[in-house]
Amino acid sequence: MKAEFRNHGILKLFLVAIFLFLNNNVGLAQRKSWTDAEFKTALKNAYEKFKDYKEGANANYIPELDKVDPELFGLAIVTTDGKIFTEGNISTEVSIQSISKVFTMAKVIEDSGSDEILEKVGVDATGMVFNSIIAIELNQGKEINPLVNPGAIATTSLINGDTYEEKWNLIKTTFDDFAGRKLNIDQPVYESEAATNQRNQAIAMLLNAYERMYFDPAEATDIYTKQCAIAVNVKDLATMASTFANGGTNPVTKKKVVSYQTVAHVIPVMATAGLYDDSGQWIYNVGLPGKSGVGGGIIAFYPGQFGIAVISPRLDAAGNSVRAQESIKNIVAELGSNPFYVQPRK
Ligand code: DON
């Protein structure tokens, strides 16, 4: 009897110790894993909540973008262990537009080192509209970043290769590797933008005058325009985002596209300039590095965990999809996946 009682006592002590241990560790842990059902439900809830949302308007300064169905609404999450969750329209492709800028930036850092961007382009948020000429003038072409048009065209000019074809081919294969499949060009969008992008041509010439353009400015602008016309669906975008989340290795194909050190240099610029002059509001609300494009896509990712993408063409005044911002905000809140949520130590 006595021995049995003592055994129970030891068992109780053991259970209390386990409880205290788990409780402490749960207290320390940030939320870093979710069930498949949680991902699916978060996507579905955002879709249901925003499916009738109509705020904003398609971009129309590129005439072809005005023709895209404004109702298009697709959402996807790709985890760093390669699971894919989708909701809404997942097959329709849109032009990647400014989201392209982060992948070209990554490729330049990967091939030429992080100082190349730091010294030849800059990594500071301009706080101005993405095609601002004043932003160039203020600092004679310095103090900009690869995610606004001037810095992006300069970044494209820094891609390895002596000719237009060599640079373009390297960009295209890099994008294919990020997405894990061969992507196409939206030819009508490319031609539409090439015929109307006098402002970008002027930006490239102005940077050239300040010796901050590293290839023929007209050709660099054309390669940049083509890179913006690469066609992607929402699953492609989420896979590309998840490749960043997974330290530069595509979580589905397992191919290393860039190093994790390269990704670590891309993240801060996305966090401070990914949504242009609204980047502060974005990171304040969502906590994840993100990037938008005037084609209607937005990507974001939780380093180490997952990439997320939403496509919805109606934009706000800053050029960011309204419904994509709202959806990602909703999903992040529901999953508790803001990496700045740190529970205090007990
Ligand atoms: O150069 C442009 O104006 C477009 N190809 C890309 C701009 C863009 O996507 C800005 N994004 N929100």
Description:
With 346 residues, the protein is an alpha+beta fold. The chain has a single domain, classed as Beta-lactamase. 50% of the residues lie in helices and 10% in strands. The protein has helices spanning 2-28, 36-50, 100-112, 114-120, 134-138, 149-157, 164-179, 187-196, 198-209, 217-228, 234-245, 260-273, 279-286, 322-335; strands at residues 74-79, 84-88, 94-95, 184-185, 230-232, 290-292, 297-302, 306-311. It has a five-stranded antiparallel sheet with strand order 2-1-8-7-6. Strands 3-5-4 form a three-stranded antiparallel sheet. Helix 3 (100-112) packs across helix 7 (164-179). The chain is globular and about 55 Å long. The protein starts with a helix and ends in an 11-residue tail after the last helix. The structure holds 6-diazenyl-5-OXO-L-norleucine. 6-diazenyl-5-OXO-L-norleucine binds at residues 97-98, 130-131, 149, 193, 200, 228, 292-294, 319-320. 6-diazenyl-5-OXO-L-norleucine (DON) binds at residues 97-98, 130-131, 149, 193, 200, 228, 292-294, 319-320.
List the helices and strands and how they pair.
Elements: H1 2-28, H2 36-50, E1 74-79, E2 84-88, E3 94-95, H3 100-112, H4 114-120, H5 134-138, H6 149-157, H7 164-179, E4 184-185, H8 187-196, H9 198-209, H10 217-228, E5 230-232, H11 234-245, H12 260-273, H13 279-286, E6 290-292, E7 297-302, E8 306-311, H14 322-335
Antiparallel strand pairs: 1-2, 1-8, 3-5, 4-5, 6-7, 7-8
Bound molecules: 6-diazenyl-5-OXO-L-norleucine.
What's the short version?
The chain has 346 residues and is of the alpha+beta class.
